[in-house]
Amino acid sequence: MIHVLLDRGEDNYGREPLVTITSPACHRERGRSEELKPQTSEEVKTLLKLVGPVMVTTFFEFLPGFVSIVLAGNMDSPHAPQYVNAATFSKMLLTLMSTAVGLGLASALDTLCSQAYGAKRLDKIGEYVQTGVIVLSVNLLLVFATSWYAEEIMGQDADVARLSASFSRWMLPGIPFLYAYELTRKALQAQNILTPLVIIAVIGNAVNIGADYGFQLVDLALELQGLSVAANIRVGNCLGAGLPKTARLARTIALRVTFGLAATFAVLLYSFSGEIPRLFLSAGESADLASKVMAIWSPLTVVVGLNCVSQGIFRGAGKQKSAAITNAVAYYAMGIPVGAYLAFQCDLGVEGLWFGAGIGDALAVGTLVLLMKYCWTWEKLADQAKERANL
């Protein structure tokens, strides 16, 4: 803060300054000092209020693909295993070429929109959504090309590849609407507007009402994804509003709640590891193998959940690049090599592959937590969020 005395030449000792100039840095420091100490109980309530609608929305977003595989596995046909493989491969291709790329591009809105809302710059949210429409429209060209030529890309058994290609082509008309929904969802979630998303997701799944296969257990897994989105929204809103202490508390609570829920889910998953695979497949070797894999994987769901929520926190803080690099290194430098060694050298098969993936998750979580603890300055993150929102 700079004080200026205008009447030069006189003794100014002890006199009050006539003009006071306050630097931006002083404004920021004063804003931080005015931030009240966040209350843990209130922050838990806020986070859980966000989790519920997000969890329900995510559940219904997950439902169509889940139902497709379940119905394929329970068809009264000798070709049911091929139908399951085709539906699974098609969904995998859609995830790689459409969901991962397109929605990965859209994830920039997780940071930008949540921080803009916290900074009360609602006009910026509209600009970000318009930019997202342009970017995802260009990406549609790649999605349509890969889905149309899926049979050649698959490189699997001829019958499975043919069925997968047909499945993928029939899904093409829905991709533009998926992108439009995703952009709308991110803009609304950033503003804590969640109820319309639940209604839309329920209506979109009305045709699946007859396929009630006990989704309550799956819903438990989606709580982790709901927590990830809730952490993203809360951290981004707080940083955009210049509340670094509250953002840090939201981070801590999100991780602790996730640990408790993931541990509970791990116990349930292990307890029902023999029954869940039979929702997808009739009794047989495939179902037995899936049961073994699920029993091995269930304890690792804790690190999977923590990784999922950590990703949401990093998106809220605008640190997607760090999270992406961390996960890529953890999986490609550790998870995949270890999984391949266990599967092929130690003859553990698919169980070894999944165990390697779990090790990659554990390494990623450990690194992300250390980055948050030792490399983040929350006050600096709040400054960056305000600057980003005011560009």
Give the topology.
Layout: E1 2-4, E2 19-21, H1 24-33, H2 40-73, H3 80-106, H4 108-118, H5 122-148, H6 150-154, H7 158-171, H8 175-190, H9 195-204, H10 216-240, H11 244-271, H12 285-297, H13 301-317, H14 320-345, H15 349-374, H16 378-389
Antiparallel strand pairs: 1-2
Helix pairs in contact: 2-3, 2-9, 2-10, 2-11, 3-5, 3-7, 3-8, 4-5, 4-8, 4-10, 4-13, 4-16, 5-8, 10-11, 10-13, 10-16, 11-13, 11-16, 12-15, 13-15, 14-15
Family: Belongs to the multi antimicrobial extrusion (MATE) (TC 2.A.66.1) family.
Keywords: Membrane, Transmembrane, Transmembrane helix
Transmembrane segments: 47-72, 92-113, 125-149, 253-273, 293-310, 322-342, 354-376
Give an overview of the whole structure.
This protein has 391 residues and is an all-alpha fold. Among the domains are: 1-34, no CATH class; 40-262, no CATH class. It is 77% helix and 2% strand. It is built from 16 helices and two strands. A two-stranded antiparallel ribbon has the order 1-2. Helix 3 (80-106) crosses helix 7 and helix 3 (80-106) crosses helix 8 (175-190). The chain is globular.
Please provide the count of β strands: 2
DSSP strand content:
under 5%
Largest pleated sheet: 2 strands, antiparallel
Low-confidence stretches: 1-31, 207-220
What kind of oligomer do you see?
A: single chain
Count the helices. How many?
16
Structural class: mainly alpha
The whole-angstrom Rg is 25 Å
Q: Which strand order spans the largest sheet, edge to edge or round the barrel?
A: 1-2
Helix content: over 70%
Give me the strand/helix succession: EEHHHHHHHHHHHHHHHH
